[in-house]
Amino acid sequence: MNEFLEISQSNIIYETISSLGTILTFGIVAFKFHLSSLSWAFGMSGIGLAFLSYYTFVRKKECNNKLSPVVMEQSLSLLNENSYRILVPISELETAEELIDFATQAALVRNADLLLVHAITKCKQSSDTIEQQDLKRPERIIEKLMKKAAERGVKVSSIIRLAQKPSKAIIDSAEEYGVDMIVMGWKGTSSHPLAVISSNIDKVMRDADCDVLVLRGKDFRNVKNVFIPIDDPQQARLKLEVGKILEIFQDSDIDLHHMISSDLNRNDKAKQERLAELYEGLVKFGQGMYNKQEAQHMINLEVTDRIPHSIMSLSSSYDLTIIEAASEGWFQNLVVATRAELITKRTRGKFILLKTRTSDSIE
Questions:
Q1: What is the pLDDT of residues 169-210, one digit of tens each?
Q2: Strand partners, 352
Q3: What is the DSSP string of 143-156?
């Protein structure tokens, strides 16, 4: 590891210009006090409103825009400037090893570089330094994981950041280093009442401008068959890519299913037009993974008017299900359970929940 980097207070404290301006305003008001009590009242009201607006809006924005400081890094110089980059958040060794197993497979298929990120969380970023003992445990974990990835022929780098929340460290790293994909883990539970998955994962999936994969379950090293519901071909790009990774490294059987309503099934012309669009779309957005004839043979049609329940029923017959994350906000997810949220929370088994980068999504 590189030598420990001390974080000075000047790197983590907000600018003092606003405070100086407030003091100056207070002085002007005090000077005018002997002239008019009304000026005092107006001046103090203005100061109060300024503080309220600053702490409610400006300071929060400053905090979000300011990158969380990097306190340790290793091998960042090995990152290829034009390479595809996969970020893996690191916490516990046990869960991280499964993420590394999958991420290295994805990296080999994509000829990508790995970036491991660990967040040291602090309630307030106000301490002068980080104790050396705070770095010992994540150092050991990262060393083991970097060695594991390097033995498989993958270029790997790592950073440790100081942040109030892990999601902040992940999003900052993705932005700063031009990450193309994030591979995260999820235990399948959340204690946060407003979280669809978990508060940190929700934020990463919402704010990170890259592909995000969330692995739920254990042992992704022995996947024999994979269930992929296909709706819109453009949104299926990442699903097909993940399926191809499992097909190459684990010889998994990939089953694509397309759900159609009973009304559409009764209208043969509309049904055929819909299927033709689907096949052509898979060829177009599948990045050369399938031709039209292969797409026709691979897709199984399911006639159903209850798509979430049909997906849950079918997923029980497979080792792994790959689905697209909902794009709605937390309120909509709580009031009307979306397909992805409903399936992942009510169904046992292994899932990979995906969010496609913003530039690939349909507006």
A1: 999 999 999 999 999 988 655 444 334 446 788 889 888 999
A2: 215, 322
A3: HHHHHHHHHTT--E
3-state secondary structure of 66: coil
Q: Which tens digits make up the pLDDT trace of 247-264? A: 999 999 989 898 889 998
- Tell the burial category of 88 from Cβ atoms under 10 Å away from its Cβ (0-12, 13-18, 19+): buried
C-alpha to C-alpha distances, 256 to 235, 259, 314, 324, 358, nearest whole angstrom: 14, 10, 11, 14, 24
- Of the candidates 213, 199, 186, 222, the one whose C-alpha atom is nearest the C-alpha of residue 92 is 186
Which among 232, 172, 221 is positioned nearest to 354, based on CA atoms?
232
What is the three-class DSSP state of 199?
A: helix
Distance CA(254)–CA(247), nearest Å, equals: 7
The predicted model scores a pTM of 0.75
Of the candidates 276, 342, 335, the residue with the CA atom closest to the CA atom of residue 307:
342
Torsion over CA of 316, 319, 324 and 325, rounded to 10 degrees?
Answer: 80
> Taking Cα atoms as reference points, which of 330, 120, 117, 86 lies closest to residue 206?
330
User: What pLDDT score was predicted for residue 27?
Assistant: 62
Residue 191 burial (CB count, 10 A):
7
- Cα 275 to chain centroid distance, Å, stands at 32
Q: How many residues does the chain have?
A: 363
Token pair listed for 108 = 């080999």
Distance (Å, whole) CA 312 – CA 342: 9
Please tell me which residue, 96 or 331, carries the higher pLDDT value.
96
Asked if 201 and 330 count as a contact pair (C-beta separation under 8 A), the reply is no
pLDDT at 329: 45
- Rounded-to-integer distance, Cα 93 and Cα 96, Å: 5
The answer to whether 242 and 222 have CB atoms below 8 angstroms apart is: no
CA distances from 138 to 71, 89, 271, 289, 314 (A): 12, 11, 54, 38, 40
Tokens representing residue 193 in the block: 């009442």
The packing angle between helices 93-110 and 237-250, to 10°, is 100
